[in-house]
Amino acid sequence: MRFIHAADLHIDSPLRGLDRYDGAPVARLRTATRSAFERLVDRALAERVDFVLFAGDIYDCDWQDFHTGLFFREQLVRLGRAGIRVFIVQGNHDAQGVISKQLVLPQHVTVFSSRTAQTIRLDDLSVAIHGRSFPERAVDEDLVPSYPPPVPGFFNIGLLHTSLTGRAGHDTYAPTDSPTLINKGYDYWALGHVHAREVIAERPRIVFPGNLQGRHAKETGAKGCELVTVEAGGIESEFLALDVVRWSQVAVPLDGLHRLDALGEAFRRALDPVLAGAGDRLHAVRVTLTGSTELHRLEAAQPGTLAAAMYGAAQDIGEAEIWIEQVRLELTTPLDRGRAAERQDAVGELVRLVDSIAGDEAELLQLAQDELGDLLGSVPQEVAVGDVPRLDDPVELRSLLMDAEATVLARLTDSGADR
Predict the structure, then answer these.
(1) What is the pLDDT of residues 117-134, one digit of tens each?
(2) Whole-model pTM?
(3) 419 inside domain
(4) Which of 38, 241, 306, 344 could make an SS bond with 222 (beta carbons 3.0 to 4.6 A apart)?
(5) Helix or strand or coil: residue 87?
């Protein structure tokens, strides 16, 4: 017996702020969730699985129109024509109270009730699937105690959308814990809600497959589903990578580099592990340049120089399609701050002032609120996504302060104050 376990498809999830990126592959990014789901159906057909499990959040929110629902239904029909049954629990994003538009699903598809937990027996396979959907977006109770007991002699699967005891970056819904799941007596728990793949336990096997397609730079790495084979009571599980756009964050160390033409090779070395075995996907990469380099002076004097160099380096990589989502700078100049602070000129005065502010956390936080609070509060959300500094984070504020210092030092150097 074989089945696929997937979750968190978030079909047609809106990707805000893409229009602020010049040259962004907007169409491919916006259709990525659909394309990944089509890959899942293709693989289910090729593997001739017996059924497919979806552990919630098929949709991201209420449909703007019926096209989203009709697309999903079309893929279900493909599975049905091959005799592959489908079982769904609704999660917080696609709960009964969230999706207002309705479509009649094909007969081979079962959506578990949101009023009570149910058991569906597949007598031909000796499999029992237990599940319960979310009635509303926010479910704060542990649903597991309401699940029926295991069916004796059957392979028992629990289908559940849950945060377990909590996961970073995810709201707490249907909270439960591993002992509660284990004590239920099922053989496999097909979980959803957490977007990073995580194997919680082997016996019984408890798994978050992660989401099917990463949607932004924080959802990095391979995304896909679980292909599970059950033979003679044993479970073999294989992760299937199905994402069509793979998000990555790459740090490129520039310590000791002084020439702009050296950046391409440094970027390539940092990117090699990302490209290894990643196939024909589009790679969406967030690049962070780190280290101590004289190139920081060049960037301060001519802002955008290093980002442009990264874009050019990406163009030179011919064996993979790369889109650089963002270039972040965490650079320092190889400046002897101690000696610079002793100087009796504009450079020394600047370094002493920056050291004074950076060394007084209260002053740093107050300065940020006074100088940046109103400005950042007026930035439109679609422009600000992922870029707005936290005004209560001293580490981030010190980084901004050092960037400002580098810019001013570059101007002072150009004007002759450094001579």
Answers:
(1) 999 999 999 999 999 999
(2) 0.84
(3) no
(4) 241
(5) strand
